TrEMBL record:
Record keywords, A-Z: ATP-binding, Ligase, Nucleotide-binding, Protein biosynthesis, Transferase
Organism: Paenibacillus albiflavus
Oligomer status and interactors: Heterotrimer of A, B and C subunits.
Catalytic activity: L-glutamyl-tRNA(Gln) + L-glutamine + ATP + H2O = L-glutaminyl-tRNA(Gln) + L-glutamate + ADP + phosphate + H(+); L-aspartyl-tRNA(Asn) + L-glutamine + ATP + H2O = L-asparaginyl-tRNA(Asn) + L-glutamate + ADP + phosphate + 2 H(+)
InterPro entries linked to this entry: Asp/Glu-ADT_sf_sub_c, GatC
Gene: gatC
Pfam families: GatC
Gene Ontology MF terms in the entry: asparaginyl-tRNA synthase (glutamine-hydrolyzing) activity; ATP binding; glutaminyl-tRNA synthase (glutamine-hydrolyzing) activity; transferase activity
Record-given protein name: Aspartyl/glutamyl-tRNA(Asn/Gln) amidotransferase subunit C
Function statement: Allows the formation of correctly charged Asn-tRNA(Asn) or Gln-tRNA(Gln) through the transamidation of misacylated Asp-tRNA(Asn) or Glu-tRNA(Gln) in organisms which lack either or both of asparaginyl-tRNA or glutaminyl-tRNA synthetases. The reaction takes place in the presence of glutamine and ATP through an activated phospho-Asp-tRNA(Asn) or phospho-Glu-tRNA(Gln).
Record-listed E.C. numbers: 6.3.5.-
PANTHER family hit by this protein: GLUTAMYL-TRNA(GLN) AMIDOTRANSFERASE SUBUNIT C, MITOCHONDRIAL
GO biological process, one term: glutaminyl-tRNAGln biosynthesis via transamidation
Family, similarity comment: Belongs to the GatC family.
């Protein structure tokens, strides 16, 4: 499969790019080369290759979730501007 100048013009129009004739010719040659290189992949035998969603195995790097003691309520509210009944008191946001 090769790319034509009309293909490049169509894509340029979709991308709202203004290209002069030299740029169109250059992109036509470059894109055709890319497609020819990608067509080489069709020559590979992939019958025994399992489909994957990632090239490398995914590993969870997060720590284990474990229960730990909480801060004392007095220490939590030490920097709070206003509290009421062991809760943060904030201005109303609804009218």
């Amino acid at each position: 499969m090769s790319i034509t100048i009309k293909d490049v013009e169509h894509v340029a129009k979709l991308a709202r790019l203004e290209l002069n004739m030299d740029e169109k010719e250059q992109l036509t040659a470059q894109l055709s080369g890319i497609l020819q290189y990608a067509e080489q992949l069709n020559e590979l035998n992939t019958d025994d290759v399992p489909p994957t969603s990632h090239s490398m195995p995914l590993v969870n790097v997060m720590r284990e979730d474990e229960v730990r003691p909480s801060l004392p309520i007095e220490k939590v509210f030490r920097n709070a501007p206003d509290t009421e009944d062991d809760q943060f008191k904030v201005p109303a946001v609804l009218e």
